[in-house]
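SAMPLE LOG
Freezer: B-3
Tube label: C17
Construct: single chain, 254 aa
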Amino acid sequence: MNSTALVFPDRATKPRARGLTVVIDNGIPLSHFQDVVESMGSLIDLIKFGWGTSIISEMLEQKIACLCEHQIGYFFGGTLFEKFLIQRLLDEYVAYCQHYGCRYVEISNGTIDLSNAEKARLIADFAHDFRVLSEVGYKDSDRSLHLHPAQWIEHIQQDLASGAEQVITEARESGTSGICRSNGEVRFGLIEEILASGINSDKIIFEAPNKEIQTYFIRRLGTNVNLGNIQMQDIIPLETLRLGLRSDTLFTFE
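STRUCTURE (predicted):
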């Protein structure tokens, strides 16, 4: 990448265990998807087929074939898991994931009424056959605001202890819930309490769907922070933030 004399921060290389960029596909056309993966595959660690878009997409198998060709992992959004769960179709969900060759699954309770203890038991079950990414936080902003920081910490620790490989902190694709307030402001106090708890930040994927949130986490945790819900058009802009090639982080690494 770097053919100049410029000095950059020590960026983890693929296959990465930290510094993950998790991109969301919200149902873009196949040709666009293929162009993005072929052009920027070295910057993408995982792709999430957002919420239930995989059910609607008529080109899902072609997209997955493209990801496999470029050795990029993929998984289905947690809301789809919740849809199968409330209809008591977990066996069918497992079969669905296996049919599409998923190595990863996202286990969440962002919308449905499911205690974290029950979610943790499901994580333990799925961890036998999949690499589990769990999610903490709720889609509803008011509900998330009433989840005390101590509960966030407890739920993250519980998920990791149950077999989750990493825990995603909810922000939605809009950046208006979970670790963010409804106006889009990061809940700085919550993040500081999570970081002060002793949880390894490499085990957390912070949803960061816009530049302001991405900039905050890179300034706070460095170039190799794990970030999720990254839009397709933001893959290269995010990498420039990680490397101090954008004014927002230019002095972060100097």
